[in-house]
Backbone:
């Protein structure tokens, strides 16, 4: 059974970098039939897809236009996990951050979600 | 980019049927699959409908999805309402030209 376990700090100062990790069990970050995503949720912005990483003979990353200039998603095959880095955060980045997986063969339906990490951006 | 618009809230009695709509602002609702998620307070969303009308294993048959090209909208219908269905429901779709994922604003379902 696939499980996603998230980790990372709950408080980040403005202008610093938000870093979160999603550890995968029951599947492989290198699977060539699923994608690994980051999604966040805040009262002001609702649910917002941030980006994804996936492997199809080589690694691909896609990012939402809203965060593309500040965000990096990295797979870590040695630890079977993937991470999110969001640079130059502001209070607008305060949200619950989720990692999520699409089903085998699918690209845009999120069948598996991590438990979420509440991240507050504040000094 | 397009938007998905949902009613802010709906309410219905136990045992009844409720339908939640999701209207696409531009482009055809039939162009890209629609998914529906249920979210209870303090929990991550869980998928209840994918690819317009498909139910993941474990989701009761009381949940069904459809699209209506004439109104450019998708619908989630829950029949035989139970108090445990009380939750927020979100629709979601995507754009084909870029990996652009869109979520609706969510609908709070009250079962009373």
Residues:
């Amino acid at each position: 059974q696939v499980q996603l376990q998230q980790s990372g700090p709950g408080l980040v100062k403005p202008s610093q970098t938000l870093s979160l990790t999603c550890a995968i069990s029951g599947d492989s970050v290198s699977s060539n039939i699923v994608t690994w995503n980051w999604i966040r949720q805040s009262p002001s912005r609702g649910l917002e897809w941030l980006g994804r990483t996936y492997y199809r003979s080589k690694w691909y990353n896609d990012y939402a236009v809203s965060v593309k200039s500040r965000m990096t998603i990295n797979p870590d095959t040695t630890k079977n996990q993937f991470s999110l880095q969001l640079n130059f955060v502001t209070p607008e980045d305060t949200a619950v951050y989720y990692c999520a997986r699409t089903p085998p063969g699918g690209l845009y339906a999120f069948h598996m979600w991590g438990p979420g990490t509440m991240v507050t951006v504040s000094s | 980019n397009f938007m998905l618009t949902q009613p802010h809230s709906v309410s219905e009695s136990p045992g009844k049927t409720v339908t939640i709509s999701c209207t696409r602002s531009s482009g055809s609702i039939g162009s890209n699959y629609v998914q529906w998620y249920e979210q209870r307070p303090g929990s991550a969303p869980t998928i209840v409908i994918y690819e317009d009308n498909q139910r993941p294993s474990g989701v009761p048959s009381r949940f069904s999805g459809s699209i209506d090209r004439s109104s450019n909208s998708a619908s989630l219908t829950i029949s035989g309402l139970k108090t445990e269905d009380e939750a927020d429901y979100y629709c979601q779709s995507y754009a084909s030209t870029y990996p652009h994922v869109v979520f609706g604003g969510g609908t709070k379902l009250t079962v009373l």
Observations:
- The interface with chain A takes residues 32-33, 35, 37, 44-47, 50-51, 56, 90, 92-94, 98-103, 105-106 of chain B (CB under 8 Å).
- The mean pLDDT of chain B is 96.
- Residues 48 and 59 of chain B are 6 Å apart (CA to CA).
